[in-house]
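Both lines are given unchanged directly below:

***
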Amino acid sequence: MMKKYMQYAKNKDCDLIWLDKIPEHWEILSFRNILVERNERNSPIKSKERLSLSINKGVTLYADKTTNLDRFKDDFTKYKLAHEDDLVLNSMNMIVGAVGVSNYFGCVSPIYYTFTSDLNNCNSTKFYEYLFRSKIVQGVLFSLGRGLIAKDRGDGKYNTLRLKVSRGDLRSLKLPNPSCLEQNQIASFLNYKIAKINRFILKKKQLIKLLNEQKAAIISQAVTKGLDPNAKMKPSGIEWLGDIPEHWEVWRLKYLIIGRLKYGANESGGDFKENDPRYIRITDFDKSGKLRDDTFCSLNSKLAEPYLLKEGDILFARSGGTVGKTFQFKNYNGKACYAGYLIKAEPNNQLIKSDYLFEYTNSGVYDTWKSFIFNKATIENIGADKYSQLPVILPTVKEQIGIVNFIKSETKVIDKTISTIEKELSLVEEYKTALIAEAVTGKIDVRDFEIPEILEEGSYEELEEELSIAAEGETEYETDDIE
């Protein structure tokens, strides 16, 4: 829940469709009358410092990038210049937040727009970065966009988005314009608040990471050593697997499944239709293997027929940032099929239980195997040929069932805690989005807000109060238990 900040004493009607009122002393101006477009070519060459722009990080040094490293050409004269404190907007992706203020002097893509605050000697770029990152303004930009339409992947990210906002439409866009002083006050307020929110988020994500590591350790111990502490051990035959119980074996995955590993459909899904199977893609399940409820997509029944899933099938992600992620198709009410960047394994129930194989892919030994594969490749990609060679520690079927029950019992509290934290993070993200929108559109008055000179380390009490997060029941763990 948003903390109720002071509201402006007087407001006036606004002629913008997307904004009904603004503070009485604010103006509405065309963007061309607020910031000055730089549009400065890098010819002759003035800088070879290449800059990048992303939705999540804003303007960064291209040298710090680790992905998409082939998108910058060697001819520096083909690019524009961005100066320190310039506002940079990606004409193709600004509608989803690809904007940022540059901390550097360097060259940027010619499809970017660069603006400076030289007009009226006002430092406005940070305020307008926040304004362009607000959802309400992004909606306006979307209406101006021309080109291909992107689809929300459901995890806060987007598939290919190419809705270009023209220079003319951007320059003509009417926006609220507070005084220079107030713009700086709003930007400083948001800088302070969002820094605290981001640190809160980071702390929670670190806690989730620790909990997942603890869970993986419990699973690893169970699937490599079993539940009998007195069991006699033997070498597994694979150095990084270590010793295993004497009567256990190690089999390759290809010998534990029915048929071969199978790639999914190389088709594009459509809007969800009740009579067509759900089309499961990599982005439809999270890192814990849970199917998302908000990313429904269907595939035509005839196209889906060869790729229909059966109870207990395991899907492996084969490429991208989520390579190695797995999903167990279980207890699903209806038909479903799977996409081409996934690989299906149908466990042979006589040899290996689906629950056991899925838990095995959540263990530390599985992560070790993935790292071993990546060390031998130039890109992170695991195809069916590599997955077929996955070493799987194989207890008896009876022991597999016992191990699964043990893991579920031991990790129940961890799973519940992670779920609670994820709900908190969702609320925090909603709060951050709302806070930005309220501040930059004049719904709250932050002029008298006093910002401490030092952002105190480890203090989240004020933020906790503002968020009013009420966890479901008492937290069932102590931080000391997972450090």
